[in-house]
Amino acid sequence: MPHAHLDRNAAPAGAPGTAKLLVLLLAFAWGFNWIAAAIAMHEISPWSVRFAGSGLGTVTLFVAALLTGNSLKVPRGEYKHIMVAGFLNVAAFQILSSFAQLTGDTSRAVIITYSMPIWATMLGFVLLGEQLNGVRLLAFALCVAGITTLVWPLFAHGIPATVFLSLGCALSWAFATVYMKWMKTTVEPLANAAWQLLFGFLFIAAGTFMFDGYPRLWPMQTNTLLAALYIGVFGVGLAHFLWWSIVGKLPTVTASIGALLVPVVGVIASIIVLGERPTLNDVIGFVLIFCAAACVLLTGGRRPVPRA
Question: Which residues make beta-bridge pairs with 303?
């Protein structure tokens, strides 16, 4: 999903209904991206899944941007910052999320990963000196309570790797977001997303050849092929393109609601499609983390950054 926070810009009071509908559809596209990854990893390794998805997504996003006349120019000296963000926000996020799904329920990985807005807020306080008002402190408290409620029972069965991997996803995503603001980059959001995807793909490709020997993408069953195509074309490429094409036309609150719908769709889809059964602690933890994210996104004055 998109790669850097945008400060709130004035949006038209009457945002187009089509843009609002697209935000809703994108929430489903990103939510189901988790399901597609889970399906694909039944047959092929996480490294190969992400190699195919990020590679195809990068090509799709670059082609869509060029065909629509969008500039992919990067200001001088900013490639190195985009490369750092691409490592954290694309490569680290995608690989950590994949192994989080392999070692635990997809729904649980989604819930913990989408605590990201709270960690971004805390990092913004530490690195950027951003103020922590009462709402943000409440969000942090709700987030800690939610994660504690969710993970505490899991420690009875040993150290839950999926928890730490999912937290790694949230933190790598948050740090990449804050890092780009910390470095005061001026690259356009769509170009930022495209180049981060390209650099992230190169890191993933290096890891794939290191750990898998080569991308093990054939032979594969039809459902695995369709899942991989979905991840690349829709979940990564077109979804990023559409988000950055329409988000500037919407009020912050509308875009934030779209962002908050992504984990809701992901969790519900994991129950329906994957047959997962969240525990009571999972449900309570999800509600608390969701409320924490809502506090930040709906009152924080920033445009949200949903991602798959």
Answer: 6
